[in-house]
Amino acid sequence: MATSIQLKRRGLLFVLSSPSGAGKTTIARMLLAQDEGISLSVSATTRPMREGEVEGRDYHFVTDAEFDRMVESGAFLEWAHVFGRRYGTLRNEVWKSIENGCDVLLDIDWQGTQQLKQVDPDIVRVFILPPSMKELERRLRARGTDSDEVIQSRMERAAGEISHWAEYDYVLVNEDAETCLSKVQAILDAERLKATRRIGLHDFVRSLIG
């Protein structure tokens, strides 16, 4: 006889981090395009909008004064300084999705991940590495958006960012975007099936064995 017990789960926070140029933003976009069960947390930032970006889709673009007010009001789950600008994850948007059983993808750095882990220990952290530092620099230059000075700054920062790899649950080397994406998807699928995240599973099992 079919059981009437409904198996649900709390949405999870799925973090992707990497040094600039290693591919986390590309992987994030590909994941969002193929998996309807996860949505992107749109961060607030004080950096200027770049060509092709859309307010509310890529970021919420705010002034420094607005960002200060948001920090003071507790609007962020986490926030950090990155290349002279500030980025923050909006608390209300994330919790609403989580409570509705939807997964949330966060494209944040190690600073934000550390803060988020303190707020909610039940997060999944994935760090993406470049195949080599030479390849990382090639990818940065291939963008064609940064000056030599900015690229040098990003390369210098990359070593420090990579040193935090051990703080993550999973570490992947992005030699090929499609291959890396398949591994990220496998991690997400497995984490969704963890018994600790299945609301009602205990009662379901009890109904089976009496």
Automatic annotation (TrEMBL):
<keyword id="KW-0547">Nucleotide-binding</keyword>
<dbReference type="InterPro" id="IPR008144">
    <property type="entry name" value="Guanylate_kin-like_dom"/>
</dbReference>
<keyword id="KW-0963">Cytoplasm</keyword>
<keyword id="KW-0067">ATP-binding</keyword>
<dbReference type="InterPro" id="IPR027417">
    <property type="entry name" value="P-loop_NTPase"/>
</dbReference>
<dbReference type="Pfam" id="PF00625">
    <property type="entry name" value="Guanylate_kin"/>
</dbReference>
<comment type="similarity">
    <text>Belongs to the guanylate kinase family.</text>
</comment>
<feature type="binding site">
    <location>
        <begin position="18"/>
        <end position="25"/>
    </location>
    <ligand>
        <name>ATP</name>
    </ligand>
</feature>
<dbReference type="GO" id="GO:0005524">
    <property type="term" value="F:ATP binding"/>
</dbReference>
<comment type="function">
    <text>Essential for recycling GMP and indirectly, cGMP.</text>
</comment>
<dbReference type="GO" id="GO:0005829">
    <property type="term" value="C:cytosol"/>
</dbReference>
<dbReference type="InterPro" id="IPR008145">
    <property type="entry name" value="GK/Ca_channel_bsu"/>
</dbReference>
<dbReference type="InterPro" id="IPR020590">
    <property type="entry name" value="Guanylate_kinase_CS"/>
</dbReference>
<keyword id="KW-0808">Transferase</keyword>
<dbReference type="InterPro" id="IPR017665">
    <property type="entry name" value="Guanylate_kinase"/>
</dbReference>
<dbReference type="GO" id="GO:0004385">
    <property type="term" value="F:GMP kinase activity"/>
</dbReference>
<protein>
    <recommendedName>
        <fullName>Guanylate kinase</fullName>
        <ecNumber>2.7.4.8</ecNumber>
    </recommendedName>
</protein>
<keyword id="KW-0418">Kinase</keyword>
<feature type="domain" description="Guanylate kinase-like">
    <location>
        <begin position="11"/>
        <end position="189"/>
    </location>
</feature>
